Amino acid sequence: MVVEKLGFVVIAGVFTAILCGLGTLPFFFVDEISDRVTVVLWGLAGGIMLFASLFGFIVERLAEERRCKSAPGCSSASGSWSVPTV
Fold it and tell me: Checking CA distances to 23, which of 8, 66, 74, 79 falls within 20 to 30 Å?
């Protein structure tokens, strides 16, 4: 069971590494990128990362709210959006 999950993680990591490597190939064939294109690419990358992180946090928090509302004594059921300390 654990070995299957570990195998999936390894395969996903290798797949991600291959795709990252393939994503760099176009830059070997282009000599110069204009400043305007660079700014657009930076903005695109920043927007994608911001959306992915916020979307992931919101979905996880809503799932925790749903789990906690049915559990007795859960501190998150009060509706507070405080950050738990570790």
Answer: 8
Q: For the chain, which residues score pLDDT lower than 70?
A: 1, 70-86
* pTM value surpassing 0.85: no
Count CA within 13 A, CB hemisphere, residue 52.
Answer: 6
Contact 73, 85 (CB under 8 A): no
- pLDDT of the residue at 54: 85
What pLDDT does residue 80 have? Answer: 54
CA distances from 63 to 18, 58, 67, 81, 84 (A): 32, 9, 6, 13, 15
Q: Which pLDDT value is given to residue 77?
A: 45
First to last CA, the chain: 29
**Residue 74: closest CA among 83, 61, 82, 64:** 64
Give the tokens for residue 72. 């007795």
